[in-house]
Amino acid sequence: MVKRINVEEFFYLERNDNLPIIDVRSPIEYSHAHIPNAYNVYLFNDEERKEVGTIYKQVGRKEAVLKGLEFVSVRMTEILKSIDEIASNHNNTNKILMHCFRGGMRSESVAWLCSSYGYDVYVLEGGYKRYRNYVLNSFEKNYKIYLLTGRTGSGKTLILKKLKDKGCNVVDLEKLAKHKGSAFGWIDEGEQPSQEQFENNLSYELSKYNKDDILWFEDESLLIGKRAIPKPLFNNMRDAEKIIYLDIPKECRAEYIVNTYGKYSLDDLRESILKIKKRLGGERLKESLELLDSGKMYECVLNMLYYYDKAYKLSINEERLISIECNNQNFDEIINLILSKV
Questions:
Q1: 166: which of 233, 268, 269, 342 lies 20 to 30 Å off by Cα?
Q2: Which of 100, 114, 168, 300 is catalytic?
Q3: Pick from 150, 154, 149, 104: nearest CA to 125
Q4: What percent of the chain has pLDDT over 70?
């Protein structure tokens, strides 16, 4: 059985029936961006897809189909074996979800093959292209947001993690972007996802919650590393229902930064400092590097916090501001203070 379904039905089945998603696009399309948790079982590899597409444009559909069959005929058994393994490991099911880019020939072909083999196949109408519309529309919703803010080194990410452990709905943008947000944020994070994949992952995270749920976000710039928060969501964050401001002394924040980043190599730390050399200014840059090279990490961070504190702007609605004054970074105490005031 092959049935075409819309994107809402597609994700209802994915979540409620725990069905695997089979992405039959080429490896390069999948690696650029894909639906979270989807498995790539391609119909054509990258070169085959390019050749079939060229024939379709320059000669015609029939010739493209024949060339496609020539490529696929030798791999039909391999495709079915791959899907068998995925279905068995995923949920031991004979029902699968499937999509290509536009919901056209590629998904039709593999769906027919799998149906003939005994699978019930649910094909996404409009394919990945329709899914991307769904993703972009998800950022237009008006979410109920609590925004955690504070100067650099306040430990906002750790506090949000502890809030999540206590049952709060936390959307960790930095984790999704694989970047901690500051000049040092790239260290030990690996390659950032593509912008498109970041948006897909973020939309998937948002879809876990109901419209009346309160979502906790960390205050971020529009860019996290090289990845941009979708503008409608960013504006929603600026207009958060409550803004929790952590007022923590500079010395405590410097100590936290040293404990967080001091374990990394001097080369990586030096590279991070050089990234903000224009903002630090020549003299402060020179001082910071000299302190770093002489092993005075704490003093180096204090010197740099001058720049970060100067750059920090609390441009929010004062009526929604909840200020949490902390004389230290006893995070359990800070969590209790936050929860007692929201």
A1: 233
A2: 100
A3: 104
A4: 97
